[in-house]
Amino acid sequence: MAEPTKDMLLEWYRQMVLIREFEETCHQLYEEKRITGVYLHLYSGHEASGVGSMAALRKSDHVITAYRDHGIALILGMDANAVMAEMMGKETGSSGGKGGSMHLASRQHNFWGGYAIVGGHLPLAAGIALEARYRGKDDVTMTYVGDGATNNGYFHEALNMSAIWDLPVIWIIENNGYGMGTEVARASGQTELHRKAEAYGIRSFGRVDAQNALEVYAVACQAVDYARRHGPAVIEHITYRYRGHGVSDKQYDARADMSAELKEWRASREPITILRDSIESRHGAEAVAEILARHEADARRIVAESVAFAEASALPNSYQALMRNTYVASDLVHKTAQSVGAGIE
Ligand SMILES: Cc1ncc(C[n+]2csc(CCOP(=O)(O)OP(=O)(O)O)c2C)c(N)n1
Ligand SMILES: [Mg+2]
């Protein structure tokens, strides 16, 4: 693994402050009912998990995740305007406003989503990796999966398939301690979650302190290199979410033990502070102060602009807009659409 350069570390800082600003703004917008819907799952607290691991990828690699997907989209360089417009269900959104918070995706960025069904994306990850193997390409598929999802069938079937077919997937288990409000130990017989993958013969790179982007990056580089050459790898990221499961869960307000735990994580394991301290100790606080401040100001500006852009955009309420990119299985719907002149792709 190459030691991360100063520019890389500054870029990670830029990504992390952008994600935090985006997520906390989404939280506020949801409280104000300017973003609506039942759920909005934020990546605040998880930033170093995504940023450190995706820094080990190259452009032609693939990424897929569950519904906690905003941070992943921003790391990949999706336009904040299009992502915010998607949150608000607008026509200018990255999925035309029809996917919403849980269904971000971008073919251009090899980002295959954004899935609401717990574990449902895991067989798809195996399929994406199979394509690379089948065509003799050495691209890998970075796959994020929650601790709770490791208990369902998709996880076990997909991991087993990846092992028997030597598929180049890096299974990253984002263990944030909870599946909704259920602690890992109450839901999983094996609490060292990476060991579940070992049971299928998958190479484990163990547990990582995923509040520290440098540690995440170091292990991700090894796992990506292994997956490119040999087959599936697993890493367990120990992380924490700063908000309830989704914004409509008020767990931290309701449970005193959880709010004390949150306070402790924020005080001692804050990923942005940990990265900032590493940058300053390596490169000198004064030498980097200006650029770090600029990244923070840029994050505020970019997110504020994205909100203005999204709010000024139209809802997808023409028939054409609704049908665009929609798979139509019903002949009746198809004929109706044709009769009103809607192009169906
Ligand atoms: C198949 C299925 N079962 C249940 C749910 C409801 N549900 C949504 S998220 C979630 C918890 C998942 O927790 P975890 O995998 O740890 O991910 P995290 O939210 O912590 O990132 C559950 C049970 C669902 N969406 N899909
Ligand atoms: Mg979880």
Radius of gyration: 20 Å
Helix content estimate: 40-55%
CATH architecture of the largest domain: 3-Layer(aba) Sandwich
Give the count of structural domains.
2
- Which outline best applies? globular
Number of helices: 15
Can you tell me about this structure?
This protein has 345 residues and is α/β, with parallel strands linked by helices. It folds into two domains: 6-314, 3-Layer(aba) Sandwich (Rossmann fold), CATH 3.40.50; 316-345, no CATH class. 50% of the residues lie in helices and 10% in strands. The chain has helices at residues 6-31, 47-54, 70-75, 80-87, 122-134, 153-164, 184-187, 194-198, 213-229, 251-254, 256-268, 271-283, 285-312, 319-323, 331-339, and strands at 62-64, 141-146, 169-175, 178-179, 182-183, 203-209, 233-238. A five-stranded parallel sheet has the order 1-2-3-7-6, with helices on both faces. Strands 4-5 form a two-stranded antiparallel ribbon. Helix 1 (6-31) packs antiparallel against helix 2, helix 2 (47-54) packs across helix 9 and helix 4 crosses helix 13. The protein starts with 5 loop residues before the first helix and ends in a 6-residue tail after the last helix. Bound molecules: thiamine diphosphate and magnesium ion.
